[in-house]
Amino acid sequence: MANILIVEDEEPVNELIRRNLELVGHQCRSVYDGKTALTALAECSFDLMVLDVMLPELDGFEVFKQNREQPTIFLTARSGLSDRLRGLTMGADDYIVKPFEMLELLARVEAVLRRTQPKRNGFEIARVRIDFDSRRIWRDGVETECSPKEYELFETLVINRNIALSRERLLELVWGYDFEGDTRTVDVHIQRLRKKLGLEKQIRTVYKLGYRLETEQ
Ligand code: CA
Fold it and tell me: Each residue of 46-82: pLDDT tens digit?
């Protein structure tokens, strides 16, 4: 699962790419011109950018020149051999010639991600990503500030996903056996997590017991 920025001014093409990438589990953000792409890149980090060369105002090369931090696949016109060479010379990871088959795009995206993305020790649910190694959480690609207890509570829910955990059990797991507070602490932290991460639906209240994180995985 990767966080992908799609920069393509033709809306139906942009939409098609986004839908297909989301279908295979990636989270995507669509932008339709070069300037907005730079703003998006400044706002958050992406694992990959699919970047059309021909864009209004600021073209794809210019966007790439100003931000090369993430792996990039250029979309180029069939006639533009020089465009392809130029993109690769500039350091792009790959290019795809338009019009292209969606399967080809997906294969190229996976290939680039395999090369560039180290195996991640984490989990993703409903556009929220948690990384166990760095103890960080992202929502829609933007890092979410969490207190250490909020992080630990969410990590515990993720590790025990689809299992109902009593408030007492959560207290033990997250706060430790010798914690003096009561189970209201759990409720307060759950409320905060739901709101911060937008997981009101996924973090379920289990009647008279506690909570359960519901996922499909
Ligand atoms: Ca275009």
Answer: 999 999 999 998 999 999 999 888 899 999 886 667 8
Cα–Cα distances in angstroms (integers) from residue 215 to residues 5, 78, 110, 150, 204, in the given order: 25, 42, 24, 19, 11
* Separation in Å, CA 216 to CA 104, 160, 202: 27, 13, 10
Q: How close is the Cα of 20 to the center of ligand 1, in Å?
A: 19
Rounded distance from Cα 194 to ligand 1 centre (Å): 39
Same domain, 52 and 89: yes
* CB count in 10 Å sphere of residue 61: 18
Q: How many domains does the chain have?
A: 2
Q: Which domain holds residue 72?
A: 3-116
Residue 96 CA to ligand 1 centre (angstroms): 13
